[in-house]
Every structure is written in structure tokens, then in C-alpha cells.
Amino acid sequence: GTARELAGYLAALAGWVAALAAAVLPHWRQSSYAGDAIITAVGLHQGLWMSCAAQSTGQVQCRLHESLLSLDVHMQTTRALMVISLLLGFFGVLVSVVGMKCTKVGEDDPVTKGRIAVAGGIFFILSGLCTLTAVSMYAAQVTHDFFSDSALPKNARFEFGSALFVGWGAASLSVLGGTLLCCSCPTKERQAQYYRQAQPSTAREYV
């Protein structure tokens, strides 16, 4: 059980760090090089917080999205989901440390400690689901814009950026780690055994 909890915590922690990296990276969508006329002088990258232009000389210029209200609805929704995901993951990190068997906090009550670990796993699962929803929704919008009947040539449109794949990996790790932590839920037999062991000592104290 301890090894399973530790593996779940490390996987969920890696997923949370990857989700943080995905949220910060300005590579949610990038310039498409499809089509006959390939433009390689300037490559455009857009993220949740900034847009960058990379020239063939290696120079990169970035600009923050200073206006919130001017952004598209899907961009604002994706931002909100990623922020919620990071907050849930942060709470999962703190709660899981308290509930894991390999820590000394609350070791006198293993039943409550197991329930705390399950709560941390639920936080991680919710965090992964928020990340998965945000990344998938953004990818769906990029796909829709790419295949829409637009006057723009294909090499002026956008494709999936590396941050989307990082986000999908982060969501998978968070859900996997949270599921492993949820396996720490104390069974009825373990609860009954603990209460049978604790009852005599409590009775002796009153005597």
C-alpha cells in the first residue's frame, strides 16, 4: 500500500508540474507549414498568456495579452480551467502528504489518514479532468479554425502546439496518480480492526 501511494503521489505531482508548464508555455498553437507556399521566415506561437514570433535568425519576440475582455471566449474559458486545475492540484499536493502512510502526520489514526489520502487523490483527479477539458476544448477550436472555409491560405493558419501534448500528458498523470491514491481508502475490515484495537486502550483510560 505504501509503494502504491508513493507511486500515485509522484505521478500526480509530475502531472501537476506538467500542467503548470503547459499553462505557462506560449505554444498552445503554432503556425502551420501546410500547403505549397511554405513560409519559414517567421513562425508564430500563441499561448494563454502571450503571443510570440520566432524569426529564422533565432530572434524571438513575445507580447503579453494585456486585455482580458478582447480575448475569445474559448481562450478565457481555457485560462479559467487551467487556473482551477492548478489550484486543485496544489491542494492535492498538500492534502496527500498528510494522508500518505510514509509520513508521520496523524499516524496514530490510520483510518482517518487513509481518508485524507483519498481526498488528495480526488483533488488530483479533478485537477486532471480540468486540464483535460481545457486542452481538448482548445484543440477542438484550433481544429475547427484550420478546416473552416476561410480565405486564409493553409500556411497562414494554426496547428497544435507542443503545450497541448504536454497538457494531455499532465492530465493522464494526474488522473492516474489520483486513482492510485484513492485505492488507499480503508476497507470496512481495516476500520473494524482499528476500532477493536483502540477500544480496550480507551476503556482502560477511563478505569
TrEMBL record:
Quick check: keyword Ion transport in the entry?
Answer: no
Q: Does the keyword Nucleotide-binding apply?
A: no
Which InterPro entries does the record associate with it?
A: Claudin, Claudin_CS, PMP22/EMP/MP20/Claudin
Q: Where in the cell is it found?
A: Cell junction, Tight junction; Cell membrane
State any single GO MF term.
structural molecule activity
- Membrane topology qualifier: Multi-pass membrane protein
Give start-end of the signal peptide.
none
UniProt keyword terms in alphabetical order:
Cell junction, Cell membrane, Membrane, Tight junction, Transmembrane, Transmembrane helix
Q: What is its main location?
A: other
TM stretches of this protein: 6-25, 80-98, 118-139, 160-181
List the Pfam families hit by this protein, alphabetically: PMP22_Claudin (PF00822)
**GO CC annotations on file:** bicellular tight junction; plasma membrane
User: What does the function comment of this entry state?
Assistant: Claudins function as major constituents of the tight junction complexes that regulate the permeability of epithelia.
Q: Which family does it belong to?
A: Belongs to the claudin family.
Q: State the protein's name.
A: Claudin
Q: Which organism is it from?
A: Centropus bengalensis (lesser coucal)
